[in-house]
Amino acid sequence: MSSPGLNCKVKMVVVSMARNWVPVISSVFTSAAFDEDKRQLYLRFGSGKVYRYFGFPADQYDELLAAESKGGYFAESIRGRFLYEEVHQAHGSAG
Length: 95
Prior knowledge:
Blueprint lengths: L11 E4 L6 E2 L5 E7 L4 E6 L4 E5 L3 H9 L3 H8 L6 E6 L6
Parallel strand pairs: 1-6
Antiparallel strand pairs: 2-3, 3-4, 4-5, 5-6
């Protein structure tokens, strides 16, 4: 039985990256951040790309940070389960 497919299209979005990033030990990503008010998870992957996941529960963020294998947790509990988009950092000039 296949799992219900989410239309998880990647869309490029430019947002301010001023977040409380938490460094993580993982071969998959380097840091994570969570916006509790908006229920959005941010993950910075080893490639440098940042993705935002929508409708993410706070308790799952705690589970991710506590997981022995962050990549394993991501594969089992995040990938394909939440709508997401790639986020690009806004760059300003130092006028």
